[in-house]
Each structure stands twice: as structure tokens, then as C-alpha cells.
Amino acid sequence: MRPCTRDQQAGLRERLRVSAFSPIELATLLFTVSLLSLLVLATTAGTRQNAGAIRCLNNHRQLALAWRMYAEDNRGKLACNRDGGNAGKSAADASWVGGWLDYTANQDNTNVSLLIDHNQWPYGAYFGPYIRSASVFKCPADPSMAHVAPGKLLPRVRSVSMNNYMGQKSRTWTTPSSYSLYGNIEQIGAPAQLFVIMDERADSINEGCFMTNPDTRWNIIDYPGNYHEGAGTFSFADSHVELHKWKDRRTTPTLIPDVLIPLNRTILNDVDIDWLDEHTSQLK
User: What are the angstrom distances between the C-alpha of 66 and each of 34, 43, 137?
Assistant: First the structure.
């Protein structure tokens, strides 16, 4: 290879000088790179937060599909949805899921068979033939635990409940009610408007029935979940799922670990209760 001439060397030095960054340009570049790095980190953090919501929505899609498949396999009859401490454990109290959740050593808190083993629980776990994994019944953002033994905590198995107006053996809070109970899927006149399954707050959830009372305005019986930045997950009778953002802070009071929230309250002018009532049932 022939060595560069003096003119060529001078031209090369000039090109390098021209292409080099001035101190101001270098500072600007470093600032820009730092800003982009912060934006990437913020986006990544948001993605992590949203990952739980995406998984929760997917869980609800599977639950909605199982709810519909059960009805189709049973001539339109909806899965039982009985409330009470014995739900899912006897013929009189048949329910789509069994068990009563609290913060104690009660084995229902950790017993996944009450959710998916219909052979063991013939009056509960009705979606077991359609859903094999019990994890579908628990929102990944629900951190609630049960005190199964002194100093020993285990995650509770469920964070979802079913609209009390949906299902065989279901009931209304006010009797008689001006709103329709749905025991058969063909009775649901506005499936895109009425929810079936929802996330319930950890300090409110017990059996698998979410109680509402549209007959009395602003009466909240059970409290909805707000695990996703103030939003809760719902699956509807037409099988679509969505996150709903709560607007009134009284609907989502601060959760105190291991303390149950008082139920059946009146919260005047709470628009969230209006939304729940509007998506629970329709007037007869």
C-alpha cells in the first residue's frame, strides 16, 4: 500500500477536525442520550405495571369462555351462583366456585380444588372441566395472604366473584327486586352491557358472589377490586373483557392488611355505584 502524501494527510486531518464534536455539541449529545435512557426506563417500568393488567384480562377471557361453554353444554342454563358460607359445598348451596375467603387459617383460603375439581366438589368448581389452572381465578396484582399457621402466610387462591344477578340459585339483595335475575343465557337482553365476573377487593371478598343492590341508589354491598392503578377487571355476558377506572375515592378506600372492610354502606353521590348498578341487571 502506498503511503499518503502530505496533501492527503492534511486533508484527512481536516476531515477529522470537521467531523469532531465541539464541547457544546458533545454536551448536547450526552444530554439527549441521558433523556432517551430515562424515557426507556419509564416505559419499561410502565410495561411491568401493565403486565399484571394484561394477565388479569387474559384470566377473565378464560373465565368468560368457561362461563359460556358451561351454558352451551347445559341447554343455556347458567352456572349456579349461591352466596353464603357453605357455597359450593352442598346441593342447596351450589355455586360456580366453592369456599369462603378471609385472612384466617380457614383452608378455603388456599384450597384450589374448590375452584377446579368438580369431581371432588360436585356442587362447586363448575368451570373445572373447562379451566385446568387455578391461577386464572387470582389477579396477579392481588397480594392478599392467609395466616395458615402462626408466622406462616400463604397466598389466597381467588380474587374474582360473579354478579349476583347471574346464575342458577342466585338472589337479589332487595326482595322483591325491580331488576331481573338471569338463570338462562337467553334471558340476557343486553349481554354487552352486563358484567358476569369481576375482581373484588381483598378485604371485601368472601364467597364467589358479588352482591349489588340497584333497587337502592348509592347502596354498596361488596367492594370492587382496584388492582390496576385504580381500575378493576370485568368480563361481560358477550365475552368481552375490560378494565374500568373508578372515579370516586370512597369506592376504593385505603386497604388495611388483614382487616375486613365494613360492607353494605350508603355512599351518597358515588358515581361508581351508579356504574355498577347500571351494569348489573336491567329493569323487569
Answer: 48, 34, 12
